[in-house]
Amino acid sequence: MNVNRTEAELWKSFCAGDEKSLVTLYEHYYSTFFVWGCKWLSGEPDFVKDQLQDFFIYIWEKRDKLSLDVNVKAYLLTSFRRQLIYQWKRYQKTQPTEEFYHSLSLHDSELLDADLITAQFSKLEKALLLLSPAQREVVELRFLENKSMQEIADHKNTSIRTVYNLLHRGINKLRSEINEKNFLWLW
Length: 187
Fold this sequence. Notes:
Blueprint (H helix, E strand, L loop, with lengths): L6 H9 L3 H22 L4 H17 L10 H20 L5 H12 L5 H16 L3 H11 L5 H8 L3 H19 L9
Helix pairs in contact: 1-2, 2-3, 2-4, 3-4, 4-6, 6-9, 7-9, 8-9
C-alpha cells in the first residue's frame, strides 16, 4: 500500500467509487485473507479463493452503504469471515449448520477476534519490513504461497542450503521482533 496514503484515506476513496482503491485493497489484503480463510476452512483453498473474489465484488457493489469510520483491516476481515461462513454453510448441505459453526468457534475462537488478528498481523507486517529482501521473499514464498524448499530454490536460482539459511535467519529475526516463540500460527 502506498505509504503516503493512509488506510482511512484509501477506504474513503474506495467508498466514494475509486476503482484504483479497490485494486489497492485487493492486492494489499488478498494474501492475508486467503491464509485466514484457509485456516478457518482447512483443506478448502479453492473454495476460499472463489469466496475471496466474490467478497471483493460484493463490497465493491455495496461500497456506498459502508461505514467510513472503521478499522479497515478488522472490518474487512470480519466481513469476509461472515461471508465465508455463510457461503460454506450453503455449500455444505450435508453438515448441520450449527455443528459447523460450533466446531469453527471452538477450534479457532481466540483467532476469530478481529482486534487480536489486526494486532498480530500489524506486528508481523512491521517485523517483515525488518528482514532483508531475500529473507522476506523466502519467508513469503514458503508461508504465504506454500512453496516447497526446492520450488523456492528453483525460483531464486540458488541452492536449497541457501534457501534454508535465509528462511532460518528470517524466522529467527521475526521471532525476536514479535517476541513470540510460536508466531507461525499467523500463517
